[in-house]
Design goal:
There is one protein chain. The protein is 71% helix and 1% strand. By secondary structure, it is an all-alpha fold. The chain has one domain (17-410). It has a two-stranded antiparallel sheet.
Amino acid sequence: MNEQNTENKIEFLKGDKVLWMAIIVISVFSIFPVYSASSNLEYIVNNGTTTGHVIKHMFFVVLGLIIMRVVGTVKYEVIGKLSSILLGFTIVLLFITMFTGQTIDGASASRWLKIPGTPISFQPSSFAYLMLIIYLCRYLTKKIKRERLPIENIFYIFGSILLVLLLVGKDNGSTALMILIVSVAVLIVGQLNWKYIAGFIVTAFVGIGLFVTVALTTDLIAANRVDTWKSRVEVFMNSKKSSQIENESDKAKNYQVMQAKAAIVHGGITGMGPGKSALKQMLPQSASDFIFAIIVEEYGFFGAAFLIALYFIIIIRIVMIASKMPAFFGSLLVLAMGIMIFVQLGVNIAVAINIIPVTGQPLPLISYGGTSMLVTYIQLGLVLNVSSRIQVFDEEGMGKKQNMEEINDIA
């Protein structure tokens, strides 16, 4: 009886157990830096209370873990088949956001869509990004043996990517750039012919160049954020040329990065201790975009190294799951989710240590906020979903080449 209860408890963590443990540890740990950094929202931004913010964050952590578990119960093949419908739905939401989108917490772009009759707002761009990548994985593995016509690839692959880029890029350039990078990576891993990939990359960069040129030199594109992107790049380049920024305007624009770097230096090897950050009140977005700097300040180099090690455990397990999955769609889907998480992780840390310009991307599973956190849990839920199916494939003897071809054709 006790053995049966133990098995039931373990079964709740369906899928890769090591991955589950890493996710839970990061999720629990996130409560502490968010609680510390959210005092900035209470005392500086005058938005709510620290207790209220940490309770909200804990709610999203629990909700995310539940969603992750639920996603793990649905066959990933079914999610793949629904991806085109879900992508179309999120594209409609992006169109709606263009006209009725809202700003939150002083943001200068209307990226949030409010659910009618509720106080809940979310970013459709995050879900559109996720659905696009799932859709690409599904398309690249459907009828994998058949050579597609060029018009099919242009319309179904590149048309979808460019449409999402266009709708997202207007108000969220950094996310649009990440969508482009991850999409190209998925096309490469998905073994699309290189001539199509090269042609798409050239077309995309020409289109981006024309958009930026027109936005900067004319008034044809209203309410764009190109000037903001240009300013961030210029300030970043100036800060690299000289450690002393003389222009007062540039100092103000570079304030976030300067405070983040100061927090990292202040943390040293062992850190100041949980909740003892001295710069969290002076660092805007300390609970979200720049929370890594607060983590280093409070937990030091060792704490940051431990956190990064947990992320690398997640990435390593994702690669291992993908390598063991005999069905190509499952393997590609897992790798795609891993690429999305890794790119977001790299961008957030790179901004905090001033390797790239400010982008506003959150730290996966840790930063305060709802939409991005839930999307990350969905991504990991899909990975756990696939990992739980590996054993099923093995038990049913479906590792033979001909059976895998059938699975890929109907996936």
